Amino acid sequence: MVKPVIFILGISALPLAQKLKTELNGEIHTPDCVSGGDVSYAKATAHLTQLFQQGQTIIGICAAGVLIRALGQYLVDKRKEPPVLAVAEDGSSVIPLLGGHHGANALAQQIANLTAGHAAITTASEVHFGFSLDEPPEGYVLRNPDDMKPFTAALLAGESVKITGQAPWLQSLPQSGDAKLSIVVTENDIEGSATQLVFHPQTLAVGIGCERGIDPYELVELTVEALIAHNLAPHAIACYASIDLKEDEAAFFGFPDTRFFTAEELKAETARLKNPSDYVLKEVGTPGVAEAAALAAAGPEAELIVPKTKSKRATCAIARAPTPILEMRGRRHGILAVVGIGPGSDYFRSRYCTDVLKASTDWVGYGLYLDLVADIKQDQIEYRFPLGGEEDRVRHAIELAKQGKQVALVCSGDAGIYAMAALVYEIIDLEPSRITVDVIPGISAFQAAAAKAGAMIGHDFCCISLSDLLT
User: Residue 216: which of 244, 247, 252 has the closest Cα?
Assistant: First the structure.
């Protein structure tokens, strides 16, 4: 879970903030004049704006008006805006101001339970039905969210609904077999409307395989054609899967969060394959890639609903699990991001850097550098190294990425200017691996110092690195 920010204006709100921090795994943000928080800020409105634009959940222990005035001008799309809540200092009232259908209502109720207060939930669907139609359980996707508003309005006006498919969370709705409104839960690719909501359960796993150097368009086209031919909705896809030998294949980069399996793991699915191949067995150690990967990803109770489909240089197959696939099997593609965090202050840290650090599963770095980004740490695992252990840091980060982790190798300044990026590429060049390496640029200390001094590096200039002397 992403850490919510617990925003306070004064020391009187600190006791409740500390309680919520413990219970919600939150992070307390205080003004410069208040100690006891995790992050300090200079100007409240500017800080709230920055948090909101970063997509951060905000729990403001302050008057609702403070949050409204700070953020009102930035409201654009309610489906993309993060939850924002106002909480009274004594915990008596909890108001989800924004993102009610996207986590704020549930968080408000959780806070109210902790404070023995009242969650002031005002969204009509929650008041009448106890849930919102555009916030389905994990593993389900609403196909036509733009139709939710008129559909809900009709329900609130007294219409009943006909439900087709498995939707246990909707059973409290008024139902009738001849209702004008309908809800369909299906993997099939059907359109919705103002009178018909379509939910897709994410029960499909798509197995893919290809020859080396394939044009990425061929693999995408094959997959799309298979879905169309069997009337399956892309929203019903929980994951893509393949063999780990193709983990670094460029054609796979267009498939989000592909899961990878070893040849032995895929070979274990042999009995369930419909098109085993002795040739494939000889080449990669398993009699099937696409079918086996789809089945392995979908689980032991899955069925193969689209057998291996071939193009000139690619294959795909689709398996369906009996329930939404919530626990992803296999291993993700490993990514090593070499991140430049700037000269130290969070003011010099780029949004790109912050986003990558938050998205990473593991942080590797010199202990001081990790301390400098502690304000945005969520649940990442840290690996701290002493100054001078540069090669050890790089090798450890590479090994983590090879395990399928999303790793951030944290560097001060810029990752490429006498930092760690060159060493990463040197080691990978000597010891090839299938991981992806991304270099995230940062502001170097010499740039920050020159900017403070005036215009010291205009026109031609020269920088001399003494990093080989650890200086």
Answer: 252
